[in-house]
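Consider the tokenized backbone below.
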């Protein structure tokens, strides 16, 4: 008489399933690399104390470290099309030569994000998350030549009153960029670290080189600000762009990003990734793959029964994850409208 082994816990079992035999989760290499990279670039948040940036009296300059993720697309300069690499998942590029980053999207994509972010602004009555605050800014940037190593002085003024904004005259010094390629998503992203150093406002007799109008909606959440901006530039020729950025903001007044340890790269990257995931085209790509897998299951079953008839839409039932306009995951039955795999 054979002895059967005890059945292991199935999907419906209440037995807990441990993540690993070591009792810890594997290291997220993307977050670890971004955190270490930013720590090195900013010298642990102390870069403003380095001799390179000290003022004449030896004190640090009046400046801020800016860390942000811009959403856009990596373009192969040889083909002038979006980059295509033989990889299957999100990847940090070690070499960005021959690649340019375009931080632009269509007006329809911009509108989609505007609607989605607006839906998150009503207060959360359950108390499970802080309230997201939003504010519109209409500003104009004027760019002047600077005697400081060829960098530009950016003067930001209120669009209507033309009064200079608080801390509105700065020199933006780029420290480093990190390009992240996302083949499964509609966009890639670039993480940038910059210094915004306060500069004297140019004299009224100075002539600016060019200007940039910004119509911006800012959505602020603890530690994070998401900016949706419509930008109009008059140089080299009049143009309009639609931009989406995720920027770190100090958790408290006078705080620094370095105080947050691993929390800040997780917050920056996870919020950027979720914006991708909630984008309509990414949802359709995921649902399309699920639809193809489900269709193959049906084809296999029909083949086993000897029925070689055509598999149509009514033959396939797909249960896929969907995201509604409020960003809530919901189960939806049936194929998403417009998916060719189920036609």
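A designed sequence for it:
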């Amino acid at each position: 008489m054979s002895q059967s082994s005890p059945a292991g816990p199935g999907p419906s079992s209440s037995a807990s399933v441990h993540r690993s035999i070591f009792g810890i989760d594997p290291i997220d290499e993307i977050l670890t690399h971004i955190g270490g990279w930013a720590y090195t670039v900013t010298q642990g948040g102390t870069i403003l104390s380095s001799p390179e940036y000290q003022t004449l009296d030896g004190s640090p300059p009046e400046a801020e470290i800016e860390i942000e993720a811009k959403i856009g697309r990596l373009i192969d300069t040889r083909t002038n099309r979006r980059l295509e690499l033989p990889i299957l998942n999100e990847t940090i590029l070690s070499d960005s030569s021959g690649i340019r980053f375009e931080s632009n999207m269509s007006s329809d994509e911009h509108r989609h994000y505007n609607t989605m972010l607006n839906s998150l602004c009503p207060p959360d009555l359950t108390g499970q998350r802080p309230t997201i605050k939003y504010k519109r800014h209409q500003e104009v940037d004027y760019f002047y030549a600077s005697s400081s190593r060829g960098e530009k002085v950016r003067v930001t003024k209120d669009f209507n009153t033309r009064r200079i904004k608080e801390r509105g005259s700065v020199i933006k010094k780029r420290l480093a960029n990190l390009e992240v390629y996302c083949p499964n998503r509609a966009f890639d992203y670039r993480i940038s670290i910059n210094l915004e150093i306060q500069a004297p406002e140019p004299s009224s007799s100075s002539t600016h080189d060019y200007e940039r109008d910004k119509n911006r909606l800012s959505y602020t959440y603890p530690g994070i600000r998401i900016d949706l901006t419509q930008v109009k530039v008059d140089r080299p020729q009049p143009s309009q762009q639609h931009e989406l950025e995720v920027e770190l903001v100090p958790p408290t007044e006078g705080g620094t990003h370095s105080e947050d340890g691993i929390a800040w790269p997780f917050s920056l990257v996870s919020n950027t990734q979720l914006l991708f995931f909630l984008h309509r085209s990414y949802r359709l790509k995921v649902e399309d793959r699920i639809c193809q897998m489900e269709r193959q299951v049906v084809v296999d079953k029909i083949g086993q029964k000897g029925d070689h008839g055509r598999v149509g839409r009514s033959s396939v039932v797909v249960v896929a994850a969907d995201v509604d306009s409020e960003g809530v995951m919901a189960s939806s039955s049936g194929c998403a409208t417009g998916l060719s795999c189920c036609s």
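The first helix runs from residue 29 to 41.
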